Amino acid sequence: MKFSKIKQHIYSKIASGEWPENHPVSSENALAIQFKVSRMTARRALQELADEGLVIRSKGSGTYVAPLKSQTSFMAIRNIADEIRARQHDYEAHVHVLRQVPASLQVAEQLQVEPETPVFYSVITHLENGLPVQVEERYVNPAVATDYLKQDFRQITPHEYLSAVAPLTEASHQIEAVTPSTHVCEWLELAKPEPCLRIVRRTWSDAGVVTYAVLTHPGSRFVLGGHLTFKA
Amino acid sequence: MKFSKIKQHIYSKIASGEWPENHPVSSENALAIQFKVSRMTARRALQELADEGLVIRSKGSGTYVAPLKSQTSFMAIRNIADEIRARQHDYEAHVHVLRQVPASLQVAEQLQVEPETPVFYSVITHLENGLPVQVEERYVNPAVATDYLKQDFRQITPHEYLSAVAPLTEASHQIEAVTPSTHVCEWLELAKPEPCLRIVRRTWSDAGVVTYAVLTHPGSRFVLGGHLTFKA
DNA sequence: TAGTGGTCTAGACCACTTT
DNA sequence: AAGTGGTCTAGACCACTAT
């Protein structure tokens, strides 16, 4: 597709840092000439980048690389280890489970594999200054991440490893408030059950479903935040 | 705009229930003739509806009303009344409180006004098929929305009214899991406290902070969802 | 085979911003 | 006045789906 070649070109300029925040992006007409396409095709590339929050367009003025904050922290696939370290707190991971299990009906459906297919399963708690702030129960499609069980998840998070072996193309999230199971209470070192924030996430790469994860945060120790700006 | 008239037309068909889930939507060519526009313009209307998740398009087959998941997108600032109606469920609002109150220290800080300044305060529950799914406690900067107390919030949501009088330029969110207060339990008609999803939202317009809202959802009746794609 | 959505073209006019 | 993005047109070819 012609428009996606143009998007790719602009995306690489931004990703490489060659075009920093607020740097002007080539105009529709300039791109049309440069890529030998009609203006409508160049326009589509810029429009989709704007919809994705990568650039800001202003009538009469031009198109500019978006400030990072408007790339939305909500949408970002966050890495909890990086976030904790960014707060200059100690990060630590405890690996409770790391093995192959047969897929239950529910897991099979989520991962789009046949029931009873062996899949990888891990349970890891993430600690901030020694206090568990998230338990991560994760099922992984073994066809996509064959070496999953060999990783040392005290050193690298599953998210980091999976991003490396199977670049994300798609993700879905569900956020809800729940009462934690007794298992989760133990992993989170909760003496009594308390309301927990549960994030259920499924991610895809080109090869299909990569992973199905249930992330549970104690309500007393975790807030999910975001900031959005709407600039014309 | 011509394309938005077409969107409006299709939206009303879906919202009214005239076109239920999976009902075929008029084709690009049909809409182009009906609305006396070019196919590209009709196409844009359908494309934007697809981007918003209201319709599904299949090459060679056609465009269909999307299955309505009981999920709320957390990407966009949405209107709960529209979402409930989009699911073809009954929407109803109960106004529990609507008056002026002096700003407490916390509220004054959030709204960036002096403590004890009179501010507007409302408590409204939103019901889906008669069941409360959200209680909305809201403080409003009276300088920005002078007629707030005169509105009938059974007919228009505070979000709709505020969007009209003070277009959003910025918003921040916090999402957490909490045990509801006894007040909130009453508003939500919860016999026993259960984990609730609490969304705290502050919004700005050009004139400054518009509103500070605490939205509480019963965990058993609400899931916040989102879907992202990363296309080249 | 007829209809559909997906992509693309080469123009056009407008409102807006910048110089 | 020149350039930019926003909207729109009237065609075109393609791949896909349904019949």
UniProtKB/TrEMBL annotation, chains A, B:
Pfam families: GntR, UTRA. It comes from the Bacteria. GO terms for biological process: L-histidine metabolic process; negative regulation of DNA-templated transcription. Keywords: DNA-binding, Transcription, Transcription regulation. One of its GO terms (molecular function) is DNA-binding transcription factor activity. Residues 1-68 form the HTH gntR-type domain. CDD domains: WHTH_GntR (cd07377). NCBIfam families: his_ut_repres (TIGR02018). This is Histidine utilization repressor. It comes from Pseudidiomarina maritima. The lineage of its organism: Bacteria, Pseudomonadati, Pseudomonadota, Gammaproteobacteria, Alteromonadales.
